[in-house]
Amino acid sequence: MYIVTGSTGMLGSAVVAKLQTSGISFLAPTRKDVDLMDPQATMEYFKETRPKVVLHTAAKVHGLMGNQKFPGDMFDENLRINFNVISAAKAVNVAKIVAAGTVAGYAAKFSEDIREDQYLDGEPHAAESSYGHAKRAMLAQLDSYYRQFDLPYAFAIYTNLYGPNDRFDTQYGHVVPSLVAKFHQAMRTGEPVRVWGTGKATRDFLYSADAARALLHLVDHGQGRFNIATARTVPIAYLVQLLSEISGVRNIIWETEKPEGQMMRSYNTERLADTGFQLKHSLEEGIAQTYAWYCENYPDVRCH
């Protein structure tokens, strides 16, 4: 049996959707079922359910502004959740843990063709350091348990994810859900869309359905670290252009005095490709589907 932590989040809900058509038995606990911040409750839940595979997607996440404003909360909550889940998984002798990492753990000095063996080399970008370090600590725990207790793991180093069931927070959210919400609001109200920066910063964006497929693929393929990305980078301006065309909103204001984070990030995906994994969705398809989902589900979407 599988267990999916963070099952109501963007990535977790996408994993659940894939499992529902797979024939695999699984549990998808919510916070009402178990508080992963509570070590005793987490341990008791794992001992009661005895999962064989843990798909660990639970995390406290923010975008650029949220990472800068709440660094202590980001580090504390993620560190506690990760430690509790992995400790409980070890206690019940699971067959494998596949855990969601983040490219925020990579050092700021790296910008192009970043490889998995560079994950612990140097300091993460200041804007994301608390979240990045919490994920690094999770990798250290996974690796130490593998070396001492033979607990197999895959550490999925995710690029910028987006998709249905994201947290569409225009103030503290990630760039894609924030922009989706802003364009939808502009479409409804006639207000302009305000975008941080110049639009020149480039990012690699991965649709949540493909991210979920990759996580499940790693259950049976591979040990250790894997970059989960598209190997395609686009400027933020292109993302804005896509949403402008989809929504019909043309009034866009670039707030060039606002921070943009790192100007370039691209990732080497050869290790993942060597396992036979292939993407199914283009950026254009994924953005269109995400915007359509938001429109269909508004106002009943997560905003905070």
TrEMBL record:
Species of origin: Gemmobacter aquatilis
Official protein name in the record: GDP-L-fucose synthase
The organism's place on the tree of life at top rank: Bacteria
GO molecular function per UniProt: GDP-L-fucose synthase activity
Gene3D superfamilies in the record: NAD(P)-binding Rossmann-like Domain, UDP-galactose 4-epimerase, domain 1
Domain NAD-dependent epimerase/dehydratase: 3-229
Pfam families: Epimerase
